[in-house]
Amino acid sequence: MSEADPEITLETYDKHQIKIPKSIATRSAIINMMIEDTGDVNEVVPLADKSCTLNIMNRVIEYLKKHAEFDNTGADDEVINEFDKEFQEQSDEIIFQTILAANFLDIKNLLELMCKKVADEIKKCKTPDDIRDRFNIRKDYTPEEVEEVKRAHPWIYDKNAK
Amino acid sequence: MEGTTGDCTSIHIKRSSVARSSQLRPRAQTNSQRDNSASGDCERPLERLKGGRLTCSKRVFWLAQLNGELLVQTFLTLSPREASRASQVCRSWQQTVRMSCRLTSRLELGQYDCPWRRKNLGSLFKRYCSLEELHFCTEFLLPLEAVQAISKAFSQSLRSFTGFLISNCVEGKQVAISELAKISTLESLTLEGTLISGHSLVELADNCPNLRSVCCHEILATHSQLAYLWDRCPNLSSLSGVNLSVHNELDGVAREPASLILSQLSSLNSLGLNLFTEYDPQILDCISKLSFSNLTSLRLRACTFPTEGVLNLFTHCTRLESLSLVASEIPGCADEVFRNLSSSHLPCLKSLDLDEDQISDRGLAALARHPVAMHLTALECLDLKNASRSTFFALMGSLSSLSRLRVGVARNTPWLQGPSKDCLMLPNGSCGEFLDVSKRTAFDSVDNLAVCWCDDFGLTEVEEIQPRCKYVRIGQLGEWPNLSHLELCDWPALSSMDAAIFASRSRKIKRFTLSLPHELSSNRAVFFVAASLTNRFDR
For the stretch A10-27, what's the b/e string if a residue is b when 16 or more beta carbons lie within 10 angstroms of its beta carbon? Predict the structure, then answer.
């Protein structure tokens, strides 16, 4: 196993080194590309994005390892969903940084998972005002523009329109 | 209106942001190495005054910094209604929502997302212009004009469609399905409740060569028409609703042996058969003997098979994950099957549908004891009139993986129509979806079956009860003694009477959030609840 699956050394943005099996590392399309570019598995792979700190990378690697295990063992969807759900439950900061890291590292599943978490936060808000409060966004619409946006989907505001 | 009394009671109406904002992690230290210029539209972290109170200081709204393609990605999973809400937030979100709508490839539409008129759907589809999958997730009939709007908008792109259509003919041309057949790219067609005539099947075969799956209530096609479909659509792997006694339904169709039809279908991995009025023991043998070992999904509707035949079939179809025994004509047919099921049968079964089957108390008890109960994630029983309360709850206790339960109740099931302490709950509350009461007309008189999410067996939390669950009355919620959180969304008709019952019985309510339509009566009810709760805690 170890011959076929050598260890790759990643250097995080805050200059820590992490060793992980190649089979895990290459689940990130971008790391895979970098390894293929150098052709040398012993070369340290630098992660140049600000989001890729030791803390976040440990979480990303936890996710990759767990999903590699799920793939190998053919785990039930329920087990996977349970892990994913727990993985989503993080502070806003970690969610945000994980999204950036997943985007940078090109890990599609993880990006979708975390974006879905943010979407769920939006779904919890019942009005545009709630969303602005939750995300701290300034309303830059004029009252006329609000009316115009509403007019674009009249039935959504008028329950009796149907 | 917002009121907070006592140490643990708060009532939020329309606005629950205060409760939620506590989930945000305050930022402990200033961020020196990160520049927060990601989004120009969002305020920098700063102190904000809300409702005259200083609510936060030094908090970073991390999620507000998402922008560009990451925000598009985030919006992709919003429903049309949620997307529209998001587009009202600010200008940049509006543009991003528009972009994400354009990129959305899969859309689910419920009854309340959009009126199913040509005009409304047309404008909706203009925004969602690159859909590949469109699913109408309701049991309500799609009008012809909606189908026309769909085929007009997506004739070259839609791959998968789900909906409910009705044609008033069982033979010849069916207008709605002819419209659908114009979508030449269709691969998966799910028309639950719909009958497809032989003529329509040929039309589909002619125009949609990529079809992989056709699922409908019934296909009334002759052997030669099915053969034509088979010939034209080589990728077909799933077909359900095949009626094996067409000659009984249509005039001028000669009797065809079921084995002839079945022999064509042998490479399917999902098969649904309908056999009305007639019993042909060969059929089960055919399924067992033909190379149906790939079968993962089997639906036998209105089939009257002997128990041994069914058990023999289970021995051969070891991969079966989904089984539906619907509308058996012999009462207790499924019953016998379950009572004789050995532990090696159905090792992979995850979904069981006993829709309209007359399963008895003993049958349910046998199912509860069988190992298969451990793995079942979905169960549908639409007729429980022979089941006793204790057996049913014993069954619930052994279905430890269940995440979806759908139960309809016949009128004469007193134990389910009594007070709501008999309400059904998923044993596996944490991942439980909800109980969906059948909307079929036969069950319209059932108005007091509860629909809920719950923790453990003691209900502690009900969130967001949608108005579509018309069977819940808020007064009944009051009878759940452990209820601590309740969130009602767009509650259609909250009466003062219900509110009073609720308020008097919900002893442990800590948070109550309500967003309401504007009717005066509703507001009165809310004030009633609010007043009752505050009074009690003040005292």
Answer: bbbbeeeebebbebbbbb
Distance CA B214, CA B232 (A): 14
- pLDDT at res. B269: 77
Q: Which of B355, B309, B350, B108 is nearest to B217 (CA)?
A: B355
Q: Mutating which of B27, B88, B404 best tests the A interface, going by the most A Cβ atoms within 10 A?
A: B88
* CA gap B414, B385 in Å, rounded: 9
Kindly state the tokens that stand for B397: 């206790």
Q: Which chain B residues contact residue A96 at CB under 8 A?
A: 62-63, 65-66
Q: pTM of the predicted model, to two decimals?
A: 0.62
What is the dihedral sign for C-alpha A64, A69, A72, A78? negative
Please, what CATH class does the domain formed by B66-104 belong to? mainly alpha
Strand partners, B273: B242, B300
Q: Which of A129, A136, A160 to mutate to test the interface with B (most CBs of B within 10 A)?
A: A136
What are the extents of the domains in chain B?
66-104, 321-449, 453-539
CA distance A49 to B240: 51
Q: Is A127 on the interface with B (CB under 8 A)?
A: yes
Lowest mean pLDDT among A114-128, B13-27, B45-59: B13-27
Residue A104, token pair as written in the block = 């940078």
Domains and CATH numbers, chain A: 50-124 (3.30.710.10)
**Is A108 an 8 Å CB contact of chain B?**
no
- CB–CB of B121/B127 below 8 Å? no
Contact (CB, 8 A) for B239 and B214: yes
How far is A126 from B402, CA to CA, in rounded Å?
Answer: 30
